[in-house]
């Protein structure tokens, strides 16, 4: 419960802020017991660089990732008696080569785990801006259902290819979908919902943990990722869930965890899963029972002292 398994720093990510060490010390100050460090895997094509990376090359991205792992290991040694630190990466899946590159990177650095995320549809960024999101819509001839179909098909390919321990912001494709009358959410249709459920079932089959990602609230969505209709499906199928702030610097640590606690209660979630390093290498998922009652919530002011979680499910 007092953990996050998805984080970034300005030291190694151009759209984040601050140093990696500030993220670690901030997590210690918050009382987190486990912190997962997950800078983005480097992209290998110049056309995939973002505007914020102007002046950089793909070689620069790879060098930065090497430096990230070295710094993460230094910090784990320095602060290991105060917090458990896992060293991982957040995936990209832009082209078929992306998955092979992620596998090679994991082996090269002996990464503890992967957060399996999808940020592109047909090589166009999903979450960079409303403008690039609209480019995908136009690329799909204005057919939002086709856009969602391609997203979930690509997500399945990523899950099958990498089997990431944590499934990142499962329904990110909703990030800029307009919530206006007359524009249907494709995930409410039987066809697209079936694709999402197919992916959920596959991730459950190999033992993945789904993150409940609070960054969705920063983007103005009603719920965390996944939104409650999809989260309900994950829970009904016996999926295991964890929590993550997807922080982009120390200032984002535990962002919206007050709303998160209420969301967990609304969805009837009492237990949460966390990762820990396994004796034989890699990580293993362990359950923290009755996590919503942990002292972390009140110690950080996310819940009033003495307040109880009703644990009523709206799923």
UniProtKB/TrEMBL annotation:
Domain PHP: from-to ranges: 5-214
UniProt record similarity statement: Belongs to the PHP hydrolase family. HisK subfamily.
Domain of life, source organism: Eukaryota
Gene Ontology molecular function: any one: histidinol-phosphatase activity
InterPro entries linked to this entry: Histidinol_P_phosphatase_HisJ, PHP_dom, Pol/histidinol_Pase-like
Catalytic activity: L-histidinol phosphate + H2O = L-histidinol + phosphate
Protein name: Histidinol-phosphatase
Record-level GO cellular component terms: cytoplasm
GO biological process: L-histidine biosynthetic process
EC number: 3.1.3.15
Keywords attached to this entry: Amino-acid biosynthesis, Histidine biosynthesis, Hydrolase
Pathway participation: Amino-acid biosynthesis; L-histidine biosynthesis; L-histidine from 5-phospho-alpha-D-ribose 1-diphosphate: step 8/9
